[in-house]
Amino acid sequence: MTEVQRATIQDVALLAGLSICTVSRALRGLPNVSESAQGRVAGAAAKLGYVASAAASRLAGGSTRSVAIITPTATTWFFAHAVEAAEQVFADSGLDTMLISLRNDPSVHSRIFGDLPGLAQKVDGVLLINVELTDGQIQALAASSLAVASVGMYDVPWDNVGIDNVLAARMATGHLLDLGHWDLAILCDREKGSRSVLTASDRLRGFTEALTDHDLTVDADLVVNAPSTIDGGRQAMTELIENRRMPTAVFAGCDETAFGAMAALREHGLSAPKNMSIVGLDEHPMSDFLGLSTVQQPVADQGAFGANLLVDRLHKPDSAPEPANHLLPTSLLARSSSRRRR
Fold first, then answer.
1. Mean pLDDT, range 11-22, rounded to an integer
2. Cα gap 41→23, rounded to integer Å
3. Which residues, 6+ apart, have CB-to-CB distance to 179 below 8 Å?
4. Cβ proximity of 252 and 293 under 8 Å
5. Where are the alpha helices (DSSP H) in the chain?
6. CA atoms lying within 13 Å on the CB side of residue 199
7. Domains of the chain by start residue, with CATH
8. 0.85 cut: is pTM over it?
9. Is residue 2 very low, low, confident or very high in pLDDT (cuts 50, 70, 90)?
């Protein structure tokens, strides 16, 4: 007999038409959820046969009643937003949270992942958010006593939540192509060589595939390295304007990169979309204010979903389903930074 796949909190959220954050609170009977939302969640959960994990006091085998959230940095919007949503889920489940920022420092990274027994004395589980790991570190973490879940990681042996970065980049690039732009640049970060995080590589791949679909090729001179920061975007756009050539449109690998690119245009007496159309990826809170066209990803829901998966894993480590990669949907938001080529 074929085993029926167990419903997840994502399935409940989709059926109820609500965010994962809201569904998580509703399932645990917490305040600040409207009666209407409570009813929609209860109905969806009943229809799918979904039951929320019990409180942390009933965690199987737990000793510390604490979990760690590990991020490359805690200062950027994406990580802060995902961490806040995850912390809320853990708090709602009665778990204390330890936030570990690797500060993009290799020595901090080595210290944390070089002493997993020491970490296991402090926490019962870890939620990794876009953390680059070697094969050896992945194997050691999987073999440790720690329960593990992650956000934004690739081909890992534990539950992961993310988006289809190839599809999201194809969506952004396709938007520009549909507007008649054939001369496109990409401003995108680069991974350091670890296979566990391929966000930038996948976004470059999506950009390339979108061009290929239109019988176009990538101009290597218009592929500019840009750290995922405002300053990184400013420097990349400055490099494009001053030392390369001006395309008619740019796909920025994240919204903060796009903000920097728009600032650089202004510094050179140019603007988007008058001189160049720009589209980003994220839906940063400032994107609407600045009129940035972007592909929206559900950042808070990724953090909340990852946290719920970790709570499930802690609650019933022996009966939890096989680890899976859960992809949340993305959508294009067209605003004033992109327009049809004239």
1. 85
2. 6
3. 249, 277, 338, 339, 340, 341
4. no
5. 9-16, 20-27, 35-48, 77-92, 106-113, 116-120, 135-143, 165-178, 199-213, 230-243, 255-267, 285-290, 299-315
6. 22
7. 1-52 (1.10.260.40), 59-162+299-327 (3.40.50.2300), 165-297 (3.40.50.2300)
8. yes
9. very low
